[in-house]
């Protein structure tokens, strides 16, 4: 057995592994990255997550827009060709693979081993019968889709995000289980490709991590697009004649014909193959015990990405990697900051959320004010037909007119909400006071102008009669 000594070994070449491996390489360290196969390089995001889903959504939106053109006298005809849709998705993945592949990384000086890693001691791993050791090791092994067994459900018509981008037909009746971001994005996309989509969730509303007023706006838009929801419900079984039996909490039963079933019911961690006990890494209920610096009970082993089990997003992995890089290289150690985290659900309209939500604010006993405004108060919302959109902000409860209050969190539901929200995300993460928004001139007509309007409207409410009198006196001098 050969012993290879590294400064850092990273297990997993997804969003969690790539950033830290390349960051440390750039700083001149000897780094090894391991993944199970060459096809897995780029991880879930590139292969079965963010990239193919966003490419699919792009195609579905074009098809949807083409149907809208008939309102203005242009008629489109024909049915989407799934093979052409898949070709588009693959071409976009291949473009990104140009800078996410084994040869590219090796040329850059990164050592890459293809194989399954398992710990053999506190600072070493066994991969393909070889032994590799390092000062520090990062576990970036991701997560996988949770699945449940349903009586009568045939595997050949059951999909998760790991298989859906290989589908070679557009299901006529497509049942989605779970109403989280995965099913919302993919359910709407398939509906726009022509499937009749049914979504079943055992909870009482869609996107349960969002504020109810925000998820309600999306819910109504999706219902308008002919997506059928069964909430507070579960799929009991699939009958021999291909009907899904869906039962709600009141015991009412509905039977729906189905041609395909998608499971978007959350994620699972699986560390079994890693043999964590050999490295003295503690777990509780299948999760790795971590401190606020993403460090395990073995002080030389850290976790990044979905495996850390806090936020499961590609940019959460980036946040983890920034923290790890800082803490490896700087004497000023940082802790994981969860209170300013943003995310976007790429439905149409999109949902963008950042910072603290109302439940967190209450739990933290923070004095806040809740402000809401609709895009009917924004001229771009009117010209571009999204007056139904909504902006929700949580702002420090302070004297508004002073302008020193800070935005603690918020949410937006509107087309392109992910882009519109960027300045709010900056204001929140950098702790910028609301007067900076008031002092900014927003080009007309932009959707982000609503950020200024919501604050201005609230400031005006604080105007006292004596203030108006002083203003009038000054004017008349
Ligand atoms: C449909 C869908 C859409 C999504 N869209 C978005 C989005 O738009 N924006 C966003 O921010 N997030 C999105 N996400 C979430 C995002 O994809 C994940 O949070 C992210 O990819 C996780 O990265 P990771 O590196 O932690 O894990 P992964 O990308 O899963 O990488 C883990 C890697 O570790 C390897 N591995 C595991 N065990 C071993 C071992 N023992 N030895 C060697 N290698 C091993 C695996 O092969 C894998 O390549 C989406 C997820 C889904 C399912
Ligand atoms: N745009 C993005 O950034 C994006 C997109 C997709 C996924 N993601 C990431 O992936 C993660 C996983 O997403 P997800 O949608 O799979 O999970 P989720 O946990 O967010 O939602 C799962 C839903 O399934 C429901 N559910 C669970 N078991 C059920 C059952 N037996 N019957 C009916 N309903 C059931 C739950 O009530 C919940 O509403 C997200 O939390 C997010 O971090 C991000």
Automatic annotation (TrEMBL):
Start and end residues of each Pyridine nucleotide-disulphide oxidoreductase dimerisation domain: 342-449
A Pfam match: Pyr_redox_2
Cofactor details (free text): Binds 1 FAD per subunit.
Binding site for NAD(+): 178-185, 266
Cofactor annotation: FAD
GO MF entries: flavin adenine dinucleotide binding; NAD(P)H dehydrogenase (quinone) activity; oxidoreductase activity, acting on a sulfur group of donors, NAD(P) as acceptor
TM region positions: 6-25
Binding site for FAD: 54, 141-143, 306
InterPro entries associated with the record: FAD/NAD-bd_sf, FAD/NAD-binding_dom, FAD/NAD-linked_Rdtase_dimer_sf, Pyr_nuc-diS_OxRdtase, Pyr_nucl-diS_OxRdtase_dimer, Pyr_OxRdtase_I_AS
Keywords, comma-separated and alphabetical: Disulfide bond, FAD, Flavoprotein, Membrane, NAD, NADP, Nucleotide-binding, Oxidoreductase, Redox-active center, Transmembrane, Transmembrane helix
Record bears the keyword Signal: no
Disulfide bonds: 45-50
Superkingdom as given in the UniProt entry: Bacteria
Annotated FAD/NAD(P)-binding domain residues: 6-319
Family: Belongs to the class-I pyridine nucleotide-disulfide oxidoreductase family.
Record protein name field: NAD(P)/FAD-dependent oxidoreductase
Species the sequence originates in: Gillisia hiemivivida
Higher taxonomy: Bacteria, Pseudomonadati, Bacteroidota, Flavobacteriia, Flavobacteriales
């Amino acid at each position: 057995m050969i012993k290879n000594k590294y400064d850092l070994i990273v297990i997993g070449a997804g969003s969690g592994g790539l950033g830290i491996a390349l960051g440390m390489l750039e700083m001149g360290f000897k780094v090894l990255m391991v993944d199970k196969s060459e096809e897995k390089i780029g991880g879930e995001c590139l292969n079965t997550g963010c990239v193919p889903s966003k490419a699919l959504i792009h195609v579905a939106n074009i098809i949807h827009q083409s149907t809208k053109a008939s309102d203005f006298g242009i008629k489109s005809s024909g049915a989407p060709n799934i093979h052409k849709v898949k070709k588009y998705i693959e071409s976009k993945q291949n473009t990104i693979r140009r800078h996410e592949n084994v040869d590219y990384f090796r040329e850059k000086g990164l050592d890459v081993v293809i194989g399954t890693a398992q710990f053999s001691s506190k600072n070493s791993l066994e991969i393909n019968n070889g032994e590799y050791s390092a000062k520090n090791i990062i576990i970036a092994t991701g997560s996988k889709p949770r699945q449940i067994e349903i009586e009568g459900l045939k595997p050949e018509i059951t999909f998760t995000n790991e298989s859906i981008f290989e589908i070679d037909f557009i299901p006529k009746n497509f049942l989605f289980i779970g109403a989280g971001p995965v099913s919302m994005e993919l359910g709407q996309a398939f509906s726009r490709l022509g499937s009749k989509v049914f979504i079943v969730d055992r909870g009482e509303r869609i996107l349960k991590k969002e504020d109810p007023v925000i998820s309600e706006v999306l819910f109504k838009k999706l219902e308008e697009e002919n997506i059928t929801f069964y909430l507070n419900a579960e799929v009991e079984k699939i009958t021999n004649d291909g009907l899904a039996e869906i039962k709600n909490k009141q015991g009412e039963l509905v039977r729906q014909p189905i041609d395909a079933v998608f499971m978007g019911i959350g994620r699972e961690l699986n560390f079994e193959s890693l043999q964590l006990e050999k490295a003295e890494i503690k777990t509780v209920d299948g999760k790795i015990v971590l401190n606020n610096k993403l460090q395990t009970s073995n002080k030389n082993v850290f976790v990044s990405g979905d495996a850390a089990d806090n936020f499961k997003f590609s940019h959460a992995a980036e946040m983890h990697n920034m923290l790890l890089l800082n803490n490896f290289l700087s004497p000023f150690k940082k802790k994981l900051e969860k209170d300013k985290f943003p995310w976007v659900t790429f439905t149409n309209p999109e949902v963008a959320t950042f910072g603290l939500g109302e439940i967190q604010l209450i739990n933290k006993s923070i004095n806040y004010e809740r402000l809401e405004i609709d895009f009917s108060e924004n001229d771009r919302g009117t010209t571009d037909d999204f007056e139904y959109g909504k902006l929700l902000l949580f702002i420090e409860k302070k004297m508004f007119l002073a302008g020193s209050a800070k935005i603690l969190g918020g949410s937006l539901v509107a087309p392109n909400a992910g882009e519109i929200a960027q300045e709010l995300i900056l204001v929140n993460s950098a702790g910028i006071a609301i007067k900076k928004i008031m002092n900014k001139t927003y080009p007309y007509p932009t959707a982000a102008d609503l950020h200024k309007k919501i604050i201005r409207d609230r400031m005006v409410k604080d105007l006292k009669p004596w203030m108006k009198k002083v203003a009038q006196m000054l004017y008349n001098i």
